């Protein structure tokens, strides 16, 4: 009979193709993962993974085994989730927010899965505006959301990072930087960076819309905006530049706006968060689904 640790180690390693990340997801040591994989390979009689110092990848047998086992495990997990939901009464309404369209895409997909597993619970989805990223959570209008990190608030619980996106600088197509293959954070000292109005944590603003370059040079601040569409309009008019995830270029194709990748900026992380005092089975179930979908999309 297949050991549970062997099964979990195999499935997660097949998705992550990295022993360290697999161990983190399973909350065990890398040695325990390696041991479980070796035990399973002895049981099967052939290697399931190719391993070198540079990569880990499935063998042909390993790939077929994953294709056979994953649907069965998903069915078991879904059945267990439905039983737990029935026992715990996952019902009512779950309100989920998102701050960017790619986060919204994932939230919608997760909501579809959630509704199948928990038909007694409705899911309402809404966009969270730039000018008040935490307001709806604190006002009780949302139960959780998927948004840009960093978030470090005593009344809010932060969950796992779901997306890690490289940054780009949004500039007017006629701006001198639009002709560059890449830009540096130091280039911001020669621009006017959009500023954000509203109830936004100061540390969040400094991370995404800094007032000084890494070398300490001041960054001129432009008009304050509270909505993303305002930012696009100001950038296309040549009034300001703005930092964005590079992926935004695929969602916000705006006349007169060019996205230039950074070569030295840290990435933008997007993660889940919810009020610390309002965590419940609905929130935990939705978080689990989002994490599973995000992991599957990276496989």
UniProtKB/TrEMBL annotation:
GO terms for cellular component: protein-DNA complex. It holds the Pfam family HTH_1. Gene3D superfamilies: Periplasmic binding protein-like II, Winged helix-like DNA-binding domain superfamily/Winged helix DNA-binding domain. Residues 7-59 form the HTH lysR-type domain. One of its GO terms (molecular function) is DNA-binding transcription factor activity. It comes from the Bacteria. Keywords: DNA-binding, Transcription, Transcription regulation. Belongs to the LysR transcriptional regulatory family. PANTHER family: HCA OPERON TRANSCRIPTIONAL ACTIVATOR HCAR (PTHR30346:SF0), TRANSCRIPTIONAL DUAL REGULATOR HCAR-RELATED (PTHR30346). This is DNA-binding transcriptional regulator, LysR family. It comes from Nonomuraea solani.
């Amino acid at each position: 009979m297949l050991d549970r640790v062997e099964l979990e180690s195999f499935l997660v390693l097949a998705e992550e193709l990295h022993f360290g990340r697999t161990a983190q997801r399973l909350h065990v040591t890398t040695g325990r993962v390696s041991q479980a994989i070796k035990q399973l390979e002895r049981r099967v009689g052939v290697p399931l993974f190719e391993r070198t110092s540079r990569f880990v990848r499935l063998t042909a047998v390993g790939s077929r085994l994953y294709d056979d086992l994953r649907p069965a495990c998903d069915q078991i997990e879904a059945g267990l989730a439905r039983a737990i939901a029935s026992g715990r009464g996952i019902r009512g309404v779950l309100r989920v927010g998102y701050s960017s369209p790619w986060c919204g895409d994932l939230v919608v997909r997760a909501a579809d899965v959630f509704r199948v597993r928990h038909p007694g619970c409705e899911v309402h989805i809404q966009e969270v505006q730039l000018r008040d990223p935490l307001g709806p959570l604190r006002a009780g209008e949302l139960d959780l959301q998927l948004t840009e990190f960093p978030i470090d608030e005593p009344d809010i619980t932060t969950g796992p990072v779901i997306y890690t996106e490289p940054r780009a600088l949004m500039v007017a197509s006629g701006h001198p930087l639009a002709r560059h293959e890449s830009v540096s954070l130091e280039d911001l000292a020669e621009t006017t960076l959009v500023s954000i109005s509203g109830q936004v944590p100061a540390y969040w603003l400094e991370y995404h819309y800094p007032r000084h370059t890494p070398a300490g040079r001041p960054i001129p601040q432009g008009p304050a905006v509270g909505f993303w569409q305002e930012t696009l309009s100001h950038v296309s008019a040549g009034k300001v530049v703005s930092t964005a995830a590079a992926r935004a270029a695929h969602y916000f194709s705006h006349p007169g706006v060019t996205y230039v990748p950074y070569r030295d900026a840290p990435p933008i992380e997007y993660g889940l968060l919810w009020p610390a005092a309002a965590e419940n089975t609905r929130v935990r179930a939705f978080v689990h689904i989002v994490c599973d979908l995000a992991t599957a999309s990276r496989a």
